[in-house]
Amino acid sequence: MQTNHMRIASLAVAALALSGCATVQTPVKEDPWEGFNRTVFTFNDKVDQYALKPVAQGYKKVTPQPVQDSVTNFFSNIGDVYNVANNLLQLKIADGVSDLMRIVINTVFGVGGLFDVATLAKLPKHSQDFGLTLGHYGMPAGPYLVLPLFGPSTVRDAIGTGANYFVNPLTYVDPAGVSWGLYGLNIVSTRANLLGATDLIEGAALDRYSFVRNTYLQRRRYLLTGGASGLPDYGDGAPPPKYDEDGITGPASGAPVAAPGAAAPGQAGASEAPAAPQGASGPGETNVPAGQMVPPARFGYPAMRLH
């Protein structure tokens, strides 16, 4: 009986893998593992559809907008720690000092980061992570890679995720329950902010996987070259825009609205290509780029940040 169960499980796994390979539609040189990536993309989509998205919708429904904005600002302030560290590693001293000033101003005058006073003071917000630092020093991106639960990435960005873990302040929060609680709140807040954006993708993209992949890779190239790639500026200087079910309503802190573009990368960007791939890869996906979403340190994983 146990042997039969093992055989059935093996056949199920094989069928899942074959179904992923069968959906390859748009092969490109950056994505040699498209069959595997599509399978993981579908898995992430189901996790989001039945778990994360309903929770995010409930959070958005019961939480007053000012509280949502404060939660977004709080984790965005923590995310500036990544920006400081990586700008200094890249010897971008002026940007690093600017990001450090953002942390100080928002922590002191913004009540621990609940209010984005630094943006109102015209201090720009940069977007950096260790994957970009590796690219700055010449490491190639490698093949496109969709990570389970983490979403769009590349081999280089996946390596950078491990380094981001050591920089995230949430990694060192005790007790463990508080660390996990903050981690969960960050994920739910990020997903809630992107509900409208992912709905836009669902209506606009014929192949969501290809759309997410292309926008993520373009966005990462844009960030690495500082705009020299010729892509438009998607508004990294402003906090993440707030999306509702009808579209963009404005940034969390009241700063000027970033240029909307096609959302979703994924770290989110979006993040991660438009800003939305930084935070989500498509409607119903948990595909937050690996550099943006990282669990607390208790089990040796990196931790999550917002741009």
Question: Can you walk me through this structure?
Answer:
This protein has helices at 2-22, 34-62, 65-89, 93-108, 117-120, 130-136, 155-167, 176-193, 195-204, 208-225, and strands spanning 144-147, 151-154, 241-244, 247-251. The protein is mainly alpha-helical. The protein has one domain (32-299). A hairpin with a 3-residue loop joins strand 1 and strand 2 (151-154). Helix 3 (65-89) crosses helix 8 (176-193). The N and C termini lie far apart (51 Å). The relative contact order is 0.15. Mean pLDDT is 75; it is low at 1-24 and 231-307.
Question: Could you outline the blueprint of secondary structure elements for this entry?
Answer:
Layout: H1 2-22, H2 34-62, H3 65-89, H4 93-108, H5 117-120, H6 130-136, E1 144-147, E2 151-154, H7 155-167, H8 176-193, H9 195-204, H10 208-225, E3 241-244, E4 247-251
Antiparallel strand pairs: 1-2, 3-4
Biggest sheet strand line-up = 1-2
Proportion in helices: 40-55%
Question: Sheet bearing the most strands, described?
Answer: 2 strands, antiparallel
Number of helices: 10
Mean pLDDT: 75
Signal peptide: 1-24
Family: Belongs to the MlaA family.
Organism: Paraburkholderia caballeronis
Protein name: Phospholipid-binding lipoprotein MlaA
Short recap of the structure:
By secondary structure, the chain is mainly alpha-helical. It has ten helices and four strands; from the N terminus they run ααααααββααααββ.
